Amino acid sequence: HFDRLHIAFNVRNEVRQSAKKWATDRLFVYGPYYKNCARHIRDSRDIIVTGNQFYEYIGRRYADRPKYDILFVSSTHSRPIREYAVQLKKIDGTLKILYRLHPEEKTDERMLSELVQLGIVIENPKSRNIYGAIAECRKVVAYNSTVIYEAAGIGKPVGVIVDEFNQTDAATERITTPI
């Protein structure tokens, strides 16, 4: 991680110049932020942004496949996410919603019947990996799930449902966008 506190910023220019003898020809960084930070210590043409190749691959693989407007990702505490999906569908009946069950979720037919009646598609988590579901939706809404970060990594707008049981941290608040 390069920032103003990094050792590369706190050495004399002569030391920095002599380090070029043993430094690599290229510097590979995770994203544009790190390239911007590193440009002070290296020619920006020699800084290659790699990013997360898996997320980029998923984004390209499913780029032309948005089938749903919103993916609701359930959790072991599924009531808030289920209620939100139902209310949103009642407000706008034209929305195409995919509701993905949590692998550890304990549900029964009664709990999901209202979703089915409203035309919300319910997906079993064992049917495929989560990345296909994320990629097939324009936006993702979750309650308390690592899918929040995975969807943001793929570049999807993410909404986080917050209530008295689920308080977000600063990182989650930064990626939350209005749905």
Structural class: alpha/beta
Oligomer: single chain
Strand order of the largest sheet: 5-4-3-6-7
Instruction: Write down how many β-strands occur, each being a DSSP E stretch of 2 or more residues.
Output: 7
| Total helical segments | 8
Strand content: 15-25%
Arithmetic mean of pLDDT: 75
N/C terminus separation? 32 Å
Biggest sheet features: 5 strands, parallel
Shape: elongated
Work out the radius of gyration: 22 Å
Give helix % range.
25-40%
Element order, helices and strands? HEHEHEHEHEHEHEH
Given as residue ranges, the uncertain stretches (5+ residues, pLDDT < 50) are 170-179
Can you walk through the features of this model?
- The chain contains 8 helices and 7 strands, in the order αβαβαβαβαβαβαβα.
- By secondary structure, the chain is of the alpha/beta class.
- The strands form 2 sheets. Strands 5-4-3-6-7 form a 5-stranded parallel sheet, sandwiched between helices. Strands 1-2 form a two-stranded parallel sheet.
- α5 links the parallel β4 and β5.
- Mean pLDDT is 75; it is low at 170-179.
